[in-house]
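re: ur question from yesterday

yeah so i grabbed the chain u mentioned. its 729 aa long if i counted rite. heres the sequnce exactly as i have it in my notes:
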Amino acid sequence: MILFDKERCIFHLQGKGFSYVFQVIRDGYLAHLYWGKKVKEYRESSPLLFVNRGGFAPNPDPSDRTFSLDNIPLEYSAYGNGDFRHPAYQIQLENGSTVTDLRYHSYRIHKGKPKLKYLPATYIEHEHEAETLEIVLVDKVIGLWVTLSYTVFERYNAMTRSVQFHNKGKENLRILRALSSSVDFRDDQFDLLTLYGSHTNERNISRHPLAMEMQVIESRRGASSLQHDPFFALLRKGTNETSGVSYGFSFVYSGNFQAEVEVDQYQTTRASIGINSFDFSWILTPKDIFQTPEVVMVYSDQGIDGMSQTYHHLYRERLCRGLYRDRIRPILFNNWEATYFKFNEKKIEELADEASSLGIELFVLDDGWFGKRDNAKSSLGDWVVDKRKLPHGLNRLAKRIEGKGMAFGLWFEPEMVSPDSQLYRKHPDWCLHVLSRPRTVARNQLVLDLSRQDVCEYLIDAISKVLSSAPIRYVKWDMNRHMTEIGSALLPPERQRETAHRYMLGLYYVLEILTSKYPKILFESCSSGGGRYDPGMLYYMPQVWASDNTDAISRLKIQFGTSIIYPPITMGAHVSSVPNHQVGRITTLETRGYVAMAGNFGYELDLTKLSKEEKEMVKKQVAFYKEIRPLIQFGTFHRILSPFEGNETAWIFVSPDQDEFICFYYQILAVPAPPIRILKLAGLNPDFCYKDMNTGKVFGGDELMNVGMTLPIEKGDFLSHVWRFKKYN
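ran it thru and got these structure tokens back, copy pasting raw so excuse formatting
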């Protein structure tokens, strides 16, 4: 519900469990008043807004020293007329100046949630699911109209924000900075939580107190990146997994971003997120409109877990789309770590025979099936089947795999081109590049310029021909390098800094066309693993290969950190061979299976080299996952023990009706003289009794959560245990 108090000019957005309040104050500025636990009404007795801060606070009205933009918590701030904090936006005029002054003009409240043109965003299926507020701000001097959009959901403890810039003036405007959200808090008593990493080490958890400084996480790599997720949270002091207050900011975008948390001289906090202003500008000609991507903001008074639950349910139900949003995901086999580039039709069919006999449902042919792709040095861009490896083509191979009772899937890396390729030789200007500068290669490849319409249409046509040539039911869409020499041959000099964002708009256009054209195909996003694991990609592809690191113990941290925002149904997780190809670690097949079962389950090893006993265990794992996957993919996920805090990891999946659950526990390293350990569960119905499906023992839900279970004491590293319970009447 969105309320407007006309007398006091206060907008009060009431979500499921929160209130967000701001006010039109003197001279038409917007002041942020409150974001927190839901209140019925924001009254006159609420905290004082204007304070005399002394001589260094500029005063628009020299007779009133209490009014200074540098002191006021603002809703969408500018720089240059009194507020010295980092602004939410910045515009350069034709005269070279960057001073603007937006004032309140009007508002509109309406049911529903409008789509963002050309951009991914959360959505609704019925008008009553959400309500939207649009605030129009105007700089009359230059004719700039800015619309702040706020949407509050009925069922989710979340709101979204985005901004639209409209040039109604007579001169060109250059946007230098256009963040999607900025929130001013009255104090600095927070910890900052972020997710950082690198290739094969994604989404580690960082948490530290705010300091009197600017703290920034960002990507300048042309993708949301392996290094930082486009997300951060502010946690009130003492907030833990299950209690305390969390404020989450998640950016629905797959390119360069910046997230800033600034503590000023008065110990107030400004939290902002949006497109990275580094190497970015956008020329807004008269009548033109620029739309920023969406930010999803979550308030929780039930700790980090409460924040995660909101993101999980919202992203699974109203960000992911298509046939597979609500459909059980298949157990897959991927041939990559089994063969790498060295395969032929016979080897693929041998692997398919083994996969079929073990109960696997989807066979994925990874890199190396096209052009003359015998290694990573050639052929990206030449999406034509290599008849040396597959003499009978994809259609026969796919149908033969279907005949074995499995669907067929295929790997692509459409956004890249190899210098050694027919495509590059024909169109050397189709990659990102800057004239007179060398073209930096990474993994022997360059980045195609998706800011160009002709490149986008080529990709749509080339990939469509492949997808229409055979019964393909799954696509792994990879992207294995970041952008360098970010420039486009078709853009004029004054628009070169638009290239990176135009690339993302081009990518989203291609994905919208292909996913709409092939609605029965399950698309999985990949970027050397988790290098572009973001809400923007989830809008088109409902699952992501979480990491190229398939080591089970490494995956505990990767999957735990990923779950802070993203639901397990979006995580691709595979069992691979040992010693592990990334870290060399040896773990049991049982533990590798139990870790991978906490996501979309699959295998990535040479099945033909498994022993008879190992094949029997794989068959049992596959059968077991088929039993539990409704819980894994559509249940409620809770973290219990963190691998970032100790030698153990535990998590639990509970059915929506709380009638059953499955709990996974992992011991990382053995310790001498171990203490007796108690594991307290979470998310159960305290009034239910639950039966252990292995032992037949019955426990109360309240008992399992408050008293807990005694963990077994065993010798050995990398051990795992699973408990499965069902409601007992």
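noticed a couple things. The two ends are 40 Å apart (CA to CA). also The longest strand covers residues 173-185.
anyway ttyl
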